[in-house]
Amino acid sequence: IIFAVLMFNFAGDGLRDALAGKQSASHGKAVARRIAAAKRAGHVASVTPPRTDAVIDVRDLKVEFPGQDEATLEIISDVTFAIGKGEVLGLVGESGSGKSMTALSLLGLVPRPGAITQGAVWYNGQNLAAMSEAELNRVRGSEVSMIFQDSIAGFSPVHQIGRQLAEPLMKHRGLSYAEALAKVVELLDLVGVPNAAQRVNDYPHQFSGGMAQRASIAMALSCGPKLLIADEPTTALDVTIQAQVLDLLADLQKRMDMSVLLITHDVGVVAETCDRVLVMYAGQIVEEGTVTDILSRPRHPYTHALLMATPRHDERMERMPTVPGAVPPAWDWPTGCRFQPRCAHATAKCGAGPVPFEDGVRCVRWRELEMEAVQ
Length: 375
Fold this sequence. Notes:
The chain is α/β, with parallel strands linked by helices. Helix content is 37%, strand content 19%. The chain has helices spanning 2-40, 99-106, 133-139, 161-173, 177-190, 196-199, 209-221, 239-256, 267-273, 291-296, 301-308, and strands spanning 54-66, 72-84, 88-92, 115-123, 126-127, 144-147, 227-231, 259-264, 276-281, 284-290.
């Protein structure tokens, strides 16, 4: 019986994989055609000169995935922003807004069969969106680094933490293993891992969630990057550990004079940590401004709704305000403003056509609406 069950499972898995391969090939061809067309039109290899005062300058970025019947789905589109030297930029929005995909796009890590089909990511005078994998590998980790959401998942369970943290130092800095390991001890000590000289011999499962996140931060900072992308760096940590990790990141950012892109769904984290903020919804940036301006004078109804839904400890409330509905999937985005089905201020003109991003906001009614300030 066991043998028969195993054979059925094996056959089922083979059929599933074969069908998946067939679908992937079809989808891959659709995306390949779209990418080729974009390159012929000069979209990916944009020649628009980048800003000289920015560490990274993202222009009109679009990421697409295959849809049904060889159609393509826009996962993010018309994404434009820049991060200044030593600046902390927050990227905030609900789950499904496209924040993590934006971060992955900056380093050319869009999961296949998706791809960047338009725009440019300017770094140090070079367009990362037009680089080969080999060229990107020289930038990843050494100059632009990333902290991922699940810190434990980023480590191999079969290798010691010390060896894993030493690898980027050996690859990008040319250190010997002994030299790299000594540097790793310094890094773990810097990020607050106790007994760092002994902990380098431990395996990932021997680290608590908070300590694993600190080790992940140490790995991201090991080569002294100019830009750090932190994607929900406190996910799955308790409140006390969250505060410690955020304080650590803020301290390290000042010490190393790094630029930081901090991705979060928590407006409170942005208020405490960031200089400027981007608000993202359904694959688009809908508002941009300084933290002070966004908190005191929100112009987009979605930004205002997010702020009103943020718990405030100094107020008593019977029921916490919520944003009705949910972020729609990419195949169900409405024409015009993508927030309109959930917006209390929506009118017919909100759905008349694509809404441009002008004066730091993507809303056709922002001049006539007066949003309540959020303290």
